[in-house]
Amino acid sequence: MPLLLNLVYLALLTACAPLLIIRGLRTGRYREGWPEKFLGRAPIRISDRPCLWFHAVSVGEVHLLQPLVQELARRRPRWDVVISTTTTTGLAFARQTFPDLVTFYAPLDFSWATQHAISRVRPTVLALVELELWPNLVWAAKQAGARVAIVNGRLSHRSHRGYRRLRGPLGSTLRRIDAVTAQTDEYAARFIDLGVPSQRVRVTGSIKYDGLECDRANPRTLAMRRALGLSASDLIFVAGSTMEGEEAAALAAFHAARTRHPKLRLVLVPRHQDRFEKVAEWLRSKGETFVRRSEGLESPSIRNPAPIILVDSIGELSAVWGLADVAFVGGSLLPGRGGQNMMEPAAFGASVMFGPYTENFRETVEQLLSRRGARRVSSADELTHALIADLDDPEAAAERGESGRAYVLAQHGASHRTLAELDRLVDATPALAN
Question: Which residues have a Cβ under 8 Å from the Cβ of 97 and sit 6 or more positions away?
Answer without folding.
Answer: 62, 63, 66, 315
